[in-house]
Amino acid sequence: MTQPITESIKTSGADAVMKVLVAEETEFIFGYPGGAIMPVYDALYHYQDQVHHVLTRHEQGAIHAAQGYARATGKVGVVMATSGPGATNLITGIADAMIDSTPLVCITGQVASPLLGSDAFQETDIISISMPVTKWNVQVTKAEDLPGALARAFYIARSGRPGPVLVDITKDAQFEELEFAYEKCQEIRSYRPIPKLDPEQVKKAAELINNAQKPFILFGQGVILGKAEEEFKTFIEKTGIPSAWTLLGLSALPTDHELNVGMLGMHGNYGPNKLTNECDVLIAIGMRFDDRVTGNLNSYAKQAKVIHLDIDPAEINKNVKVEVPVLGDCKESLIALTKEVHMKSHAQWLERFREFDAMEREVVIDPEIKPTEGNLTMAEVVDQVTQQTQGEAILVTDVGQHQMVACRYTQFKKSKSNITSGGLGTMGFCLPAALGAKLGAPDRDVVAVIGDGGFQMTLQELGTIAQTRAAVKIIILNNSFLGMVRQWQQLFFDKRYSSTELDNPDFITIAKGYGIKGKSINERGDLAAAVEEMMAHDGSYLLEVMVGKEDNVFPMVPSGASVSDVRLS
Amino acid sequence: MEQVFTISIFTENSIGLLNRITSIFTRRHLNIESLNTSESESPGIHRFTIVVNTTEEQIKKLVLQIEKQVEVLKAVFHVDEETVFQEIALYKVSTGSISDGNLVEKLIRDNNARILSMESEFMIIEKTGHKSETQELLDFLRPYGVLEFVRSGRISVIKPMEEMKDLRKRITNF
Known about the structure:
The complex is a heterodimer of chains A (569) and B (174). With 569 residues, chain A is α/β, with parallel strands linked by helices.
């Protein structure tokens, strides 16, 4: 940890912002300048050797890049934008980070304090606008308040259940001088980031687990955010309990771990969905029972006693009635619980998952991964990538069919290898997030898998990728449709394809315009070589794969149906 | 089943916190029946009293979401029986229409109300009580012409001593 800066120095508010970012060990600022933040950008000029500013092509790109960075590194992502439109362009990313618990500090410029409320040029009330989608936010109008506000911002963003915070700084506060001293925030009296673990609850949970015949674990991003991957593995190995991950829990455990029974949710695996309604004890760890995981709550795991480990008291009983809540830090809770549980195996019960897995393999997985005729499938592309990268790459996805397929078929070996927009389902997330991930984890391969629809929502960030020389490998799975909406139209709206077909541009020419090499393929025979060329290329690369226009993602829990009514076709 | 709940929230005194708290209601399409804020017995700590009509299941979740806010120290909810609560109402009535002195005296006595101000054209009556009581007086005065009427938000204190002790601990022992 850096030492507090105790000796006070007379400096400007803008310079103080930069000093704080340095003290908080900020590697990158993802941002976009403008009038009301110019003093900070001027100060930034003098800190270029300590903090890298990544100039995106749109503020939405900046915030998604910061999200990708935060998810790949576990550190706080820092975003900077000007007032008005600069600030409002951050909102989608802030909302995305809020629902997916991603630590971000967003710094926005604001008109000078005497102009507040006067409809000044580029004035917007970003504090009120961002309030429901930030963990905390504050407006600073005096330079002397800046160090304290920013210290709190970093502390709040990263502690407890992480989330986005926003600090709005008026232009006069950036110019004003202050006596600067800095100390990292360690405590806020009204804020309890980590609830105290109750040993009685741990005992109760252990008793349920020890007596269970068919226990089942659902684990989410909490395991990753709590840096509890090892403790989680130890816990499941001792208890022998089959474990399924949520979309954001992906990569918290190696895919090929014998107790990993696959993905939950609407397009998750067959076994975990079916057997949710058969287990006798359901142990939820760092997950929030999203409706895409639970399907119809009235028929969700009604037979099971539910144990819920979480850091956020507001998650307990929010969607699913919990028998034993265990509040606390995931790592600490798992260590305590592991001590109390018996060494066991549930071979027969685990076998049930294997049986369902075999069915899913036969009906869905094998035909999708190894088709012998027809169009290229999304699944075979993803499978090819995961084979060639040997599960070592970071997968970044957008939202829709390609996302579900990529998350289903990618093999993960390391934690923090799956970056996707989960709760908010933000199309356009992937390309900038992949850039942020690559900058945060330069030694790892970063593969961005995107649909043709989502790619066009933030494709301007190809410019940022080119300028930063971040070697992002981009795969567009092109079906010339907004595929997931089209799938629903086919299944639930009598094939009325209302506004879902796309006439797409030549993506390779676009990439070329940005100086990014690319190739388009639509033959099965070209796939392996094309992926190999992409991965071997020194620098970013765009591979477009033409896939079946009307392929569907299965299994599927239809909207409003019970998880055990999951369909294979 | 929906019923009346009183939420008491102990907070820091910061700009925008009211907005942050009310947006938690807005998001859930819940109407706030009344709202009051003032400094509590602990200097620097503010107390919100919010009345809302909802179900027990909803109020539990709502209070947890409120308590989750960084600048909220503690949030609790109660049904009417667990609290002592009051509202204050002011009535501006035309003096001419209510000139009968006996009537005024009876009105004040029966309603435990008082006259705050007497002008040549109007008088201001004040009454504190539950909403039904201040409403009763309003209904009584209507035929005489009520020029203005205003009722405050509910303020409420918690009856159970044990609970208040726990609350105090949380609020003062940071």
